[in-house]
Amino acid sequence: MMRRNRLLLIAVLYCSLPVAQAGGACPSVTRVGLSDLGYAAYREQGRIAGIAVEIANEMGRRTGCKFEFHWYPRQRLFIEMEAGHIDMTMGSVRTPERDAYARHLPYAYLQYDLVLAAAPSRQYHSLADFVEHGSGRLNVTRGVTYGAAVDAQLALLAAAGRLEVVNDYETVFGKLEMGRADGTLATPPIYSKYLKQSSLHRRAAVIPIAEATARFTGIYLSKKTMEEQVRQRYALTLKTMVADLYVHGIYTRYFDEAIVKRTFRQGQGPLLTALSAPED
């Protein structure tokens, strides 16, 4: 099995490398949209950094193309892409609405957890359990896609007056620290950063929820502003970066072994299959 996986990796690299390095002119610049996603994308001392930036920079290095980073609130990000003002987004979950104007390229997985500002008096096994038996208010970030099962529970919280939607995770975790909200939904890259930087790390509770399943996170490439040849070139470059474990290596620099294992527990196979699929 190990030998077969090694041969598959070599085959992927061999087939992808010539296209990633050659063929087709780069755009004058690829405008990359990012938003607050904890260690996945953040602003610090006037610069944009994080996992997504490292991935985009390596794509630029391997293709020789120029990438330019732009910061937006999460909800605004995809409005700007649909309007043709940016060419590429990072840390993006695939949805049918976004597929209409962009191509999705996955590079990792994400899964949301329930993050409470203080350890609860009872144990919750799901978001539905929290909705039914809890009394706390959640703050969530506008423009984030959670999936149908989670959305159904958030609708119940909203109807009960226990949900507030804000612009970004910085606001969410600031309110949690000040006691103006009781919890949120976030992925490990998001809450790892914000818990570490605040007093919340001494008292917060992170609870896996049954409604949240692991999903692809990745890049969206605009079908409006980017030629298909360029999209294909970027797809093959990212595929090589996933296959040679470069993306995996970025995650190991930010997180402990447990989080990295959880992030990639479905393995490289589904990611490579999705990256090999023809464009719709």
Automatic annotation (TrEMBL):
Listed PANTHER family: AMINO-ACID-BINDING PROTEIN YXEM-RELATED, MEMBRANE-BOUND LYTIC MUREIN TRANSGLYCOSYLASE F
Lineage: Bacteria, Pseudomonadati, Pseudomonadota, Betaproteobacteria, Burkholderiales
Organism in which the protein naturally occurs: Duganella radicis
UniProt-listed SMART domains: PBPb (SM00062)
Pfam family, any one: SBP_bac_3
Signal sequence segment: 1-22
Full protein name: Transporter substrate-binding domain-containing protein
Keywords: Signal
Top-level lineage group: Bacteria
InterPro entries documented for this protein: Solute-binding_3/MltF_N
Domain Solute-binding protein family 3/N-terminal intervals: 29-258
SUPFAM superfamilies in UniProt: Periplasmic binding protein-like II (SSF53850)
